[in-house]
Amino acid sequence: MRPLVIVSDVHLGHRRCDDVADDLARLVASHPDHEIILNGDTFNLSCDPWSADPAVSAPAMIAAHPELRAALEGHLAAGGDLTFVAGNHDMALQRPAVRVALASLLGRDAGRSSDAGSGPGGAEARLSVEPWMLRRGAIHIEHGHLYDPGNSPTHPLAEPSPRAEPVGMELTRHFVGPYDLWEVLADRWTNSAAQNLGVMYDKLGWGVVTSSLYYCGLLGLVNLETAVPARLNRDRRAGEAALPALATINVLSGALRGAGDTRWPWVIVLFGYLVVRIPLTYMLTNPVSSGGYGWGLYGAWIAMFVDLSVRGSLMAARFLHGGWRRARV
User: Fold this and answer.
1) Which of 46, 97, 275, 289 lies at a C-alpha separation of 20 to 30 Å from 179?
2) Residue 80: which of 55, 107, 115 has the closest Cα?
3) Residue 133 pairs with which residues in a beta bridge?
4) Which of 314, 279, 315, 324 is nearest to 299 (CA)?
5) Strands, E, within the chain: which ranges?
6) Beta strand spans in 86-174 (E)
């Protein structure tokens, strides 16, 4: 097995990004006897509209950087292997037409199927595209976006489409791309909301108001469950199990307040949030390394279920106690 050079998250776009491209070109040129593995997010295809052809965009993004193109061509011509792995921002790499287009750009008929092996041969046998993961000996290589619900498609081998696109990429395609915000988000974003608002104002002027409203509207339209339905089935069931308790709370708290007993519903709600839901959510969702259980989203659903169950029980107990009969309206 050849030694490996594995590079991830280059994020080439339609604009020239010479610093990153030139660094990668030097890295490729200095390792002629290695297999170069570009492990996901090599291209910002997620900033293109769906109407754009990735078989045109991906080669154009390399062609916009002559030094990088020359380095990759030279690597293949010298007998080196070049492997692209699809990431969340360039899932469309798995389309056969994209591999053919990259092969045409970097070496005549250089493309091959991912199962064709990496044996000896010319450039035509040394450029491959992996839609998900690959192994080189004992080394497992993949981009890793499948473990992030916000960036995971419905299935790693699903044909890229609006239906299969994860939430994070949908927001990128419909907000970051149209507003040309990639460089701003990559280079100037901070942990301060006030500073970020200033960054957005510098880029968009007063258009930051309409763009913010547009972003909030997108968040309302994007449905996380369509992106990862199988993963959320368990979480959804936990939420559905809490519906009887929620109905009990709504009915009995309304009845108690209508009878003039407003204090106890308020106390019960306060108790549920401050004593049950918030501490339990923190404990169940926090990573194990931080002293929690590491259940993530499922832990939040469980905390909600417990909170609603406790509050429903307390509301029912107060109603059955009959103290509301003595309240003055």
Assistant:
1) 97
2) 107
3) 142
4) 279
5) 4-7, 35-39, 82-85, 127-130, 133-136, 139-142
6) 127-130, 133-136, 139-142
Angstrom distance (rounded) from CA 45 to CA 53: 9
CA torsion through residues 172, 173, 177, 183, sign: positive
3-state secondary structure 15-66: CCCHHHHHHHHHHHHCCCCCEEEEECCCECHHHCCCCCCHHHHHHHHHHCCH
DSSP classification of residue 14: S
Report helix, strand or coil for 12.
strand
Return the C-alpha torsion angle 323, 325, 328, 329, nearest 10: 120
Which residue's structure tokens are 């990862």? 228
Please list, in sequence order, all residues whose beta carbon lies within 8 angstroms of the beta carbon of residue 206, skipping any fewer than 6 positions away: none
CA 321/CA 124 separation, integer angstroms? 81
Predicted local distance difference test score (pLDDT) of residue 221: 56
Query: Which residues does residue 37 pair with via DSSP β-bridges, in sequence order?
Result: 6, 83
Burial 58-96 (b: 16+ CB within 10 A, else e): bbebbebbebbbebbbebbeeebbbbbbbbbbbbbbbbe
Ramachandran class of 40: left when φ > 0, alpha when ψ lies in -120 to 50, beta otherwise: left
What is d(CA 97, CA 126) in angstroms, rounded to the nearest whole number? 17
Residue with tokens 């040129």: 29
The answer to whether the CB of 43 falls within 8 A of the CB of 57 is: yes
Tell me how far apart the alpha carbons of residues 226 and 77 are, in angstroms, rounded to a whole number.
Answer: 44
Nearest CA-CA partner of 298 in 222, 228, 233: 233
**d(C-alpha 329, C-alpha 130), whole Å:** 71
Q: What is the mean pLDDT of each run of 10 residues along the chain (329 residues)?
A: 93 88 95 94 93 94 94 92 94 91 77 42 74 92 88 81 80 82 72 72 74 64 48 58 84 87 91 92 82 79 90 92 81
CA atoms lying within 13 Å on the CB side of residue 192: 5
